[in-house]
Structures are given as C-alpha cells and as structure tokens.
Amino acid sequence: xxxxxxxxxxxxxxxxxxxxxxxxxxxxxxxxxxxxxxxxxxxxxxxxxxxxxxxxxxxxxxxxxxxxxxxxxxxxxxxxxxxxxxxxxxxxxxxxxxxxxxxxxxxxxxxxxxxxxxxxxxxxxxxxxxxxxxxxxxxxxxxxxxxx
Length: 148
Known about the structure:
It is a single chain. The longest helix has 29 residues, at 91-119. The chain is built from five helices and no strands. The mean pLDDT is 97. It has a single domain (4-146), classed as Ferritin, core subunit, four-helix bundle (Ferritin), CATH 1.20.1260.10. 79% of the residues lie in helices and 0% in strands. It is globular, with a radius of gyration of 16 Å. The chain is an all-alpha fold. 34% of the residues are buried.
C-alpha cells in the first residue's frame, strides 16, 4: 500500500475533528435547556456514545497503517478544524452547530475515501464509506429537525 504517511496524517486530522465533535456533543448534552431538553439530552448522549466508538476505530486504523494516533487534548485543539463550542444551551444553536460539524466530518471523510482509494487502502475506504453513510443520515435528520 502506498501513501500510508499521507493517509495517517489525514486520519489524525480527522481524529482531532472527531474528538472535538465528541466533546461538543457532551457539552450540548450536559447544558441543553428549554422545551426540547428531553429529546436532545437523550439524542446528544446517543450521538456522543456512537462518536466514542468511531474515535476508537479511527485511532486503531492509524495504528494498523503504522502511524501514531494523536492522543492529547493539546494535539486535538492544535489539529482540529472543528471549533470548541462553549456555553451553548439552546436547541436551535446546538443543532446548527451539529450540522456544521457534520459538514466538516463529511468533507474529511470524502477526501480520505478518495485518497485511500487512490492508494489501494481498502480498509480505510471501508471505514470512510461506513462513516459517510452514518453522517449523511445524521445530517439529514439534523436539517429536518432544524426545519421545524
């Protein structure tokens, strides 16, 4: 397999973004208020639990390719393109942030899919295909919720 270094670099950038996505979801879960509290408190917990599992899969893929996954908060903050959302507690603002984060994750995943396919890295292609399908559904659902 060629281009392992480039793929692991992109996977690490994605890992950093995914960690920010995860932490933002945790913050939304903890802080959500208002009439949508019950539905979003539960939904954010479901999403961050799913994100934790995906983070592990991405880090393990980096290791399988001979790389070293980023693993400190400082690494994540430095490498991430998803911002840390702070003190957000309203339904619409949190769901808009989720939509923006999903757009970023999908852009990463589509780029990684192409890079991995060009390099003949079927394992990363499979992982990205699975992530893309899940994130497209989440984005569709988030945008449908925002259309209320």
